[in-house]
Amino acid sequence: MTTALLEVTDLRVAYGKIEAVKGISFTVEDGSVTTLIGTNGAGKTTTLRTLSGLLKPTAGTVTFDGRPLAAIPAHKIVSLGLAHSPEGRHIFPRMTIEENLLLGAFLRRDTPGITEDIERAYTLFPILGERRKQAAGTLSGGEQQMLAMGRALMSRPKLLMLDEPSMGLSPIMMQKIMATIVDLKAAGTTILLVEQNAQAALSLSDRGYVMQTGAIVLTGTGQELLRDESVRKSYLGED
Ligand code: ATP
């Protein structure tokens, strides 16, 4: 039997008078990869930012690991085991790669574990290890994406939320990120993925949800959605 690590019920989020998320409900099962797909402006990023405590919902509940997240501040949410690798990377360009990774562990005090996880990030992304003392701003876009993912992993999350990790990446880099997601799942990390590349994301997802103008309009396993005619037309570029 599977259990929900994250349960979102009737979530609503607004920017002033504009409601960007209009009462969505979905679950992320423990140990799964779950993907939100949808057109630009559908509300995917808004959803992730709300889950990590950066935006306040106007209604609805979020339960993470059996605990309601309402009224828990963003930094506390990280310490509960929910990490977010945001869209657009948000690394600190003047700090070194290693300093950026260490920031991801800011709530931890277990120095040996932190050292171990830094080495794990370098094994996952060897380029980061090679350039560890270099300013992060000198990395290519794809390498910065890897750094953002590596940094989110430094909090040893139970749930890793990745917002468009393949954005702006070459096909080879994208494959590497997707393979890393599969590896992370195998190592026990639950993943909530937001992706424009629906084909790649759904192929490795246990479950997917399709968002359209703030609502969830369709759900199914990754394979079911890949076969769905409306998904194929709207998101996979088929006629
Ligand atoms: P994309 O795939 O383009 O990143 P998305 O599904 O992540 O899209 P969101 O970024 O969540 O969509 O945006 C949802 C809606 O909320 C859009 O209509 C957007 O214009 C609006 N929105 C997002 N951020 C703000 C903001 N800070 N202030 C006002 N409106 C916003």
TrEMBL record:
What InterPro entries does the record point to?
AAA+_ATPase (IPR003593), ABC_branched_ATPase_LivF/BraG (IPR030660), ABC_transporter-like_ATP-bd (IPR003439), ABC_transporter-like_CS (IPR017871), BCAA_Transport_ATP-bd_LivF (IPR052156), P-loop_NTPase (IPR027417)
Task: Enumerate the Gene3D superfamilies for this protein.
Answer: P-loop containing nucleotide triphosphate hydrolases
Show the PROSITE patterns listed in the entry.
Answer: ABC_TRANSPORTER_1, ABC_TRANSPORTER_2
Q: Which residues form the ABC transporter domain?
A: 6-238
For this UniProt record, give its keywords in alphabetical order, as a comma-separated list: Amino-acid transport, ATP-binding, Nucleotide-binding, Transport
Q: What is the lineage of its organism?
A: Bacteria, Bacillati, Actinomycetota, Actinomycetes, Kitasatosporales
For this protein, the record's Pfam families field holds:
ABC_tran
Q: Which organism is it from?
A: Streptomyces tateyamensis
Similarity comment: family membership: Belongs to the ABC transporter superfamily.
Q: Which GO terms describe its molecular function?
A: ATP binding; ATP hydrolysis activity; branched-chain amino acid transmembrane transporter activity
Transport as UniProt keyword: yes
Single Gene Ontology BP annotation: L-amino acid transport
Identification of the protein by name: ABC transporter ATP-binding protein
Q: Which domain of life is it from?
A: Bacteria
